[in-house]
């Protein structure tokens, strides 16, 4: 599993913290740029464990629809995972509370019933319209109580 953290939702700054959870549930973290390719993570993990045969290993991630995908080494990590909002929830909450927004609108949420437990924010009323029967879409409004 790969998880991202950055200092604010607006910046998605030049550098983000990336955490990779291994099969034994241990985690390895590093900082990556938005344009960092998947091969960087593979190399980082192989170097951490002093593995020489990197061609035998890969990284998989799970999208919001619970589908597993191989992280492509020659493509940007950020672009491959851009459809996932799950890994941005903590970032959204932090930015919201620091800035004190009264209204927040999010488009292309890609949410479904799976996200019911995790998308609420204390002090905000949630209004959402998920796209039914098709992939993608969806809008959400958070309104300050």
TrEMBL record:
Pfam families in the record: FERM_N
InterPro entries recorded: Endo/exonu/phosph_ase_sf, FERM_domain, FERM_N, Ubiquitin-like_domsf
Record-annotated FERM domain positions: 16-145
Superkingdom: Eukaryota
PANTHER family: 4.1 G PROTEIN, FERM DOMAIN-CONTAINING PROTEIN 3
Protein name stated in the entry: FERM domain-containing protein 3
Native source organism of the sequence: Grus japonensis
């Amino acid at each position: 599993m790969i998880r991202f953290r950055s200092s604010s939702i607006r910046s998605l700054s030049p550098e983000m913290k990336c955490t990779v959870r291994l099969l034994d549930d241990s985690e390895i973290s590093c900082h990556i740029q938005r344009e960092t390719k998947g091969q960087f993570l593979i190399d980082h993990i192989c170097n951490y464990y002093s593995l020489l045969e990197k061609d035998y290993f890969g990284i998989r991630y799970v999208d919001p629809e619970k589908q597993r995908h191989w992280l492509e080494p020659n493509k940007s990590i950020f672009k491959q995972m851009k459809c996932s909002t799950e890994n941005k929830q903590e970032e959204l909450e932090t930015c919201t509370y620091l800035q004190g927004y009264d209204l927040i609108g999010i488009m292309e949420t890609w949410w479904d019933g799976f996200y019911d437990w995790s998308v609420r924010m204390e002090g905000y009323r949630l209004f959402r319209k998920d796209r039914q029967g098709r992939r993608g879409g969806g809008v959400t409004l958070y309104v300050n109580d």
